[in-house]
Design brief:
homodimer, 306 residues, alpha/beta, 6-phosphogluconate dehydrogenase C-terminal fold, 2 domains, disordered N terminus
């Protein structure tokens, strides 16, 4: 059995369920670093499987976990990188076909629903499951965008439960550290609240803003005069709609609550603009600038310490 | 008299009222290109004046337009680059002290209130005034951030009125073209509507979002786990609070209306998330992604044609 002190390869077979940007980047990153012997893609169609092999990222592919499961053991890792709402179906396959000593982890952006799905499928969260979420990504998607250094210098949040096995947690931690990521641990609830506010809320806002301009405001030239600030501000509205549909639904309560707070705040700002309440505007703008400048410093320190 | 066909210098004295990022970049850009003979800064304090000279951007400074006005004529340009709500006071000085043949232009982000201020001060918009707005800038501010190429490849919108003199309009157009900008013409109302939607609205949103996270959500670590997407999305919240206070107040009606549409749209999205209305979310996200991707192409074409 491979443990954290063994020489490479860390992993014998890396089974990636869902070969897109996230899973593809993990696979090619581990492979390039000599940390796994073989990459097996579990995909839904022959076409996707052949594409995964053509990119050089996967060594072979399978159309089901069922057919692959008999050869998997404690030396292997199943990495689930399907859209958030599709994780439950993969967990059902794991429960039905995969041995209990195979480490299973995921990269879904919401953790509460993954844990709830595991409880529903297994009765309780199995010790082999390590819920995880890399805080990196791109508005790009698909295996062609895969990048072995996507996680270098970025953070990965793991949300282990009391049921999570220590050896499985160690292996998944090591997997991410091998890719150059900093691994942090957090409770499921805090993860979903923090990400709801700092990631899911901004995506909802960016989609709504671009849609307001493109769809609701009747000026066909509205984008012609937009500048660089607008480009940066709306870049995340180019993200994958299906992925974000899943995230919003999976983290519904936290996103709805964050939207409540934001809409309240923005409505107060609107009222202040309408009433020409300059004191209110200056106070909010100054406080926000201070917070944003502080965030810039924190990010710069993180980058400098990498 | 200097006209558009004359050899350089295009301008004899460039008088910059308000020596910050915008005015400083115009001055150093024209000077570096040999397009003006002398830069005179009109500032409020000796300290600012000495700083403007120390940077090498201004040749001399004056603490009032009044003392400078007697030496100004048709070969000179007054460039007003003070915060939006301070433009009216400068126009009052122009009306009182400056000859009618001196070209006057401004760089305020809102044009309706500048034109209204001119009407109030002069009784009607004087032919010497060319309202303008460069669609470039930065979350930085101050003369130390001045950059001779700030406008290279960017757009400048001029909103001339029927009262605007053709020779003044030509000189200001040439000024911006000399700096490498593309000059576009638009009505005052369209300018304020378009910028309200593509610039002022996003700034209001960014300030409100950062303030919501920093002030209303009770998690002191909320920024620790934010990633690059959040950084891009909130960069504009580091913009100068006083400048944006002025812009929001000056373009009140357009900003309040754009906020109405955006808050409506975002509230519908919130309701769809709460109701798990996946069809609605997918439709809006897909439509927004398509619009944003189209915008990326338009921007790329503009960059390519520069």
């Amino acid at each position: 059995m491979v443990d954290k002190d063994s020489a490479f390869p860390l992993i014998d077979k890396l089974v990636v369920v869902g070969m897109g940007l996230i899973g593809g980047s993990v696979a090619v990153g581990l492979k390039n670093r000599g940390a796994c012997r073989e990459v097996v893609a579990v995909v839904q169609t022959e076409t996707s499987g052949k594409e995964a092999i053509a990119t050089g990222i996967a060594d072979r592919f399978s159309l089901s976990l069922e057919s692959l499961a008999p050869e998997l053991g404690a030396q292997d890792i199943i990495f689930i990188a399907v859209p958030t709402l599709a994780v439950q179906q993969v967990l059902a396959d794991v429960q039905r076909w995969v041995a209990e000593d195979v480490t299973v982890t995921d990269a879904a952006s919401v953790k509460g629903n993954v844990v709830a799905a595991a409880r529903e499928v297994f009765g309780q969260v199995p010790s082999q499951l390590v819920p995880g979420h890399p805080i990196a990504g791109s508005e790009k998607s698909g295996i062609k965008a895969a990048n072995p250094d996507l996680y270098q210098g970025y953070r990965v949040i793991l949300t282990p439960l009391t049921e999570t096995g220590a050896s499985h947690l160690q292996r998944v931690t090591k997997l991410w550290q091998t890719l150059g990521a900093e691994v942090l641990f957090m409770s499921v609830a805090e993860h979903d609240e923090v990400l709801g506010a700092t990631s899911h809320l901004p995506h909802a806002i960016a989609y709504a803003l671009v849609d307001t301009l493109a769809h609701d405001i009747g000026n066909p030239n509205i984008f012609r005069y937009a500048a660089g600030g607008f480009r940066d501000f709306t870049r995340i509205a180019s993200s994958d709609p299906l992925m974000w549909h899943d995230i919003m639904c999976a983290n519904r309560d936290a996103v709805v609550q964050a939207l409540d707070q934001f809409i309240d705040n923005l409505s107060r700002m609107q009222a202040a603009i309408a009433a020409a309440d300059g004191d209110y505007l200056l106070e909010v703008f100054s406080r926000a600038k201070k917070a944003r400048d502080h965030f810039t410093q924190v990010l710069a320190q993180q980058t400098a310490s990498q």
